[in-house]
Write the structure tokens for this entry.
Amino acid sequence: MTEVFGKTINQWVEEFPMISSLQEMTELEWFNPNIKNTVEGLAHVGLTEADIKDAADRLRRWAPYLADVFPAAAPTAGILESPLVSVPAMKSVLEERYGVTIAGQVWAKLDSHLPISGSIKARGGVYEVLKHAEDIALEHGLITLDDNYRALNTDRAREVFSQYRVAVGSTGNLGLSIGVMSAQLGFQASVHMSADAREWKKAKLREHGVDVVEYESDYSVAVAQGRKEAESDPTIYFVDDENSTSLFLGYAVAAARIAGQLTAYDVRVDEDHPLIVYLPCGVGGGPGGVAFGLKSVFGDAVRCIFAEPTHSPSMLLGVMTGAHDGLSVQDFGIDNLTAADGLACGRPSAFVGQHMQYLIDGYYTVTDEEMYRHVATLAEAEDLRIEPSSATAFSGIVRMNGTGKPVAEYRERTGLTDERLANATHLCWITGGNMVPDEEMGSYIARGQELL
């Protein structure tokens, strides 16, 4: 019998019975029994708050350039940040529809409205390209660290950058952020995209002069081919979504900023006023980086929970078994085909799975149908338009306030009493959707309305 990572499928299922439910692609929750306190968990990551500060400082240096070249970034002086909004109407609808009482406040972090790519990938993706560009600019004497980086919006700088290529493998949003940012600077850019990537994203990249390489296979193949291309040419820089610490740190910068937003709205976060964050998860870099930042800022007062499609629960599978990227969902007959194209990653990030495994409280899975329902509901209740992948976050609030056995055991184990939950802030991280063409967004909403 064929073995996968040292065991047969039957042996894996016998040791981890929940795999049977994953194979059936039903919705479920799994809360990590091995979570540690924040100090212990952060020690396992291998990065520090100083690394996050270094990333934040670099983004500040680039802000004048970004304000110059991207009109959407000008109102914030080149600081790429998204709104934080309360969604009380969505909360009321969820309570009525699912028969639950949601204790505490419900907010949404609209990374769907970030400039450049309209998704969370504008954080990590843009940051990594800027870091690479800064290294080249310093090497060629185009700037010093004390210069105004507007100096890089010149023909001379673009000529230097044009001697280099940036490549990435992507299901869509990461490729969009990498491609647009790279092309703007003057780099040659290649985005290796899987079959499930949206056509409008490919078209937008081509409009910016990006070379889009398409594959009939899924995300993992696109990444492997992009990596292979870079290995053969020293002028190619490959953005490795599965293992990049630069991407990870770009995402982590979000935490200090949202801390300021919460303070501005007089939202308390401490042991008795927990912050519970629901993060859509694909390969894991985006939610992992944000969670690292949140834990660095809020410590044990924040709880991070990842959401995955029922058709692609790769991070849950990897962390639960401890095999991490040694297993793929396809190994177990799970098809990795989902409307949440940005989450269609059959094999999780080795870096995030291994280094963040003690800091992520739990994981839950969501059907495509449920995603569409949330998309339609949010559009009607709050006039917000998001991608199906983003909508997975709202299922977490319902689960956390439900009466299921996994949730009850988790809350008892972590001290999330009724009193503390009543003081909680539930935060849904909305990872993308603002740049989806109106016609396609309309089809998402119509599909959700049909299902309702």
Notes: The radius of gyration is 21 Å. The chain is about 50% helix and 15% strand. The mean pLDDT is 95. The CA atoms of residues 318 and 324 lie 4 Å apart.
